[in-house]
Design a protein that fits this description.
Elements lengths: L1 E6 L3 E6 L12 E6 L1 H11 L4 E8 L2 H12 L7 E4 L6 E8 L2 E7 L15 H5 L1 E7 L8 H14 L3 E5 L10 H10 L6 E5 H8 L4 H10 L4 E5 L5 E4 L4 E4 L12 H13 L4 H6 L1 H18 L5 H4 L3 H12 L2
Parallel strand pairs: 1-4, 1-8, 2-6, 4-5, 8-9, 9-10, 10-11
Antiparallel strand pairs: 2-3, 6-7, 11-12, 12-13
């Protein structure tokens, strides 16, 4: 049985070595295995949970690198498909400030856009406690249909379904297509994680609490909304709460949302969705753990290496508790 299985893009991030500059002025980059679903799978594994990743990479050097990296961190790699016709996608990432990022994608197409449902090992769908997906794999076929089939299969098997819209506007044909597709899959999700910008994009309003209630009314059971330096909001139909950000010496916010989710999943995978939605203590503990994981991740460059292990998170929480 898996604690967390993720599906979606695994990319090569080419992260700017020089910080404080727009991408147009960056001259050197460092290769890092990335992609939000891959990061969540790695983060969950480093926190001591059994995780798996479903994605598709090119049958070439970059694809091999991704498989090697996620495998090194203990992620089950049997769900990583190899594409002999299309290469692994690339994402150039600039860091104008520690809290802002600039993306430039090269995936026309990328292998992750061709995830094939027929090649997914059944145990990754039928034997997991939490199944997590994002919107990027919903943009193009055949990955869109494959992702939805996988979500439905996992849900039918009893998994808690988690969804992160993870909006990257430059990958969508237009705003309407992005908004319509993102909203079309809310009905499958038990847990939805959004950031403030995504909530504003979806509902055209800065009122995050009202947006959270709208998502709950559409069928979601748990809403997690990150607000950058302002912390996070969490809500179910039974309660609403907030969590302050944990401030460390941040150098890079890349992957913090993925680390936040990994930390939350590492707690929630011990509980049923009914317990999570009715017991505020469980969700508060999970969000606190996720906030600590994200804070640690922000202190390093390069997401996979920056994702913390369980001891680091527990030590930070203990230090905060003791003042």
């Amino acid at each position: 049985m898996y604690d967390i299985v993720t599906i979606g893009e695994a990319l090569i991030d080419l992260a700017a070595v020089e910080t404080g500059l727009p991408l147009s002025e960056v001259t050197s980059f460092k290769r890092v295995a990335g992609g939000a679903p891959a990061n969540v799978a790695v983060g969950s594994s480093k926190l001591g949970r059994k995780s798996g990743l479903i994605t598709r990479v090119g049958d070439e050097a970059f694809g091999k690198h991704i498989i090697d990296v996620v495998g090194k961190f203990g992620v089950e790699t049997s769900g990583i498909q190899k594409d002999t016709e299309v290469n692994t996608g690339l994402a150039f990432i600039g860091l104008p400030t520690p809290y802002t990022r600039e993306f430039l994608f090269y995936r026309n197409p990328g292998a992750d856009m061709r995830i094939d449902f027929s090649e997914i090992p059944s145990d990754l769908l039928l034997k997991t406690k939490i199944f997590h997906f994002g919107s990027i794999s919903l943009i193009n076929e055949p990955s869109a249909a494959s992702t939805l089939k996988a979500v439905k299969a996992a849900k039918d098997a009893g998994a808690i379904i988690s969804y992160d819209p993870n909006l990257r506007m430059s990958l969508w044909p237009d705003e309407k297509a992005a908004r319509d597709t993102i909203m079309s899959v809310v009905k499958y999700a038990d847990i939805i994680k959004v950031n403030g910008d995504e909530m504003e994009f979806i509902f055209k309003s800065k009122d995050l609490e009202a947006g959270a209630q709208k998502l709950l009314n559409m069928g979601a059971k748990v809403i997690l909304c990150t607000k950058g330096e302002l912390g996070s909001l969490f809500a179910t139909k039974h309660f609403t709460g907030t969590k302050d950000v944990i401030k460390l010496d941040s150098v890079d916010s890349t992957g913090c949302g993925d680390s936040f989710l990994s930390g939350i999943f590492s707690i929630l995978s011990d509980y049923s969705i009914e317990d999570i939605t009715t017991d505020q203590n469980i969700l508060e503990k999970a969000v606190g753990f996720g906030a600590a994981a994200a804070a640690i991740t922000s202190t390093m460059r390069g997401v996979t290496d920056a994702l913390p292990n369980r001891k680091k998170v527990q030590d930070l929480l203990e230090k905060i508790k003791n003042g």
